[in-house]
Amino acid sequence: MKHETIRACSIWRALEVVGDVPVLLILEQAFLGKHRFDEFVQKTGVARSVISNRLNKLLDSDVLIKLPGRHAGYRLTEKGRDLFPIALMILRWQHNWELGERGFLIELIHADCGQKLVPVAACNHCAEQIDPRQVSWAPGPGISQITALYGRRRMQTAVAIAKRGNQTMVDSVIELFGDRWATLVVRACFTGIQRFDDIQRDTLMATNILADRLDRLQKQGIVQAKPYSAYQDRFEYRLTEKGRDLYPVLLALLQWGDRWYADSKGPPLLLTHKTCGQALRLQPRCSCCAGGLHIANTAFER
Fold first, then answer.
1. What is the pTM of this model?
2. Which end of the chain is more exposed for a tag (fewer CB within 10 A), N or C?
3. Strand 278-279 and strand 235-239: pairing?
4. Domains with residue ranges and CATH for the chain
């Protein structure tokens, strides 16, 4: 039996590991300095059985390592620490668009200048802030097709833990990147695929699922529908300013996927920053001193 395939990219490969709401919440707490199983349960509001399952998956993926001793807990590996730019870009988007939506605030302090900061998504070559409209892309040597396998459990889990008491645990960006269906819709829009039938062919989603994700993305203000013909029921789905500002998160996911999952041929996608003409690489920078941010010089405060 022949299975239909979709175009592979390092974003998809990264989401195979981190594209899940409980996983994102666990990683958030790991970057906030939490290490123990009970801390993950308490701080995320996720059921113990789900936390146990996801921790095992993160161990299998070499994102976490379990230290010896009953109460030693879990630590991020090099591969796990390399997710730091993704965390920074998620925090950046939350600060720009949904500040305070979750009932608590995470602030960053840059040790090099001592100031509270908002991460800036900058080009590693020219240090200019990245605008997705100034980025061109071309197929890379590792481009391939993969069979799309989607699971229902992830979306159900996201809904189940959306709130804990009066505290919202999941905001739009965590919900989005915890759902690979929705993320693939946004990916399609960034690559100029904007019509319903074209998005469906690109993602191989069932039409009812695609309609649901497009409706939710519109309600979140990430895409907007615009008629493209005399028939008022035919629309193009275009990213809003809020939607375009998700680009640094996608770029950080792509870079992480390129580093840890690209095959020997090379990355599936090549990006060029038109502003400087160089291969695009994201470098998170401090909004106060413009210095580079990395895990050793950036502290989180909740």
1. 0.90
2. N
3. unpaired
4. 5-247 (1.10.10.10)
DSSP label of 234? -
- Token pair of 80, please? 């796990």
Q: How far is 194 from 212, CA to CA, in rounded Å?
A: 16
29 and 43 in contact (C-beta within 8 Å)?
yes
Task: For tokens 């009953």, name the residue.
Answer: 70
Give the SS3 label for residue 61.
Answer: coil
List the chain pLDDT tens, one digit each, 302 residues. 445 666 668 888 899 899 999 999 999 999 999 999 999 999 988 999 999 999 999 999 999 999 987 778 999 999 999 999 999 999 999 999 988 777 778 899 999 999 999 999 999 999 999 999 999 988 888 776 666 665 554 554 555 555 555 455 567 888 899 888 899 899 999 989 999 999 999 888 889 999 999 999 999 999 999 988 766 678 899 999 999 999 999 999 999 999 999 888 888 889 999 999 999 999 999 999 999 999 999 998 87
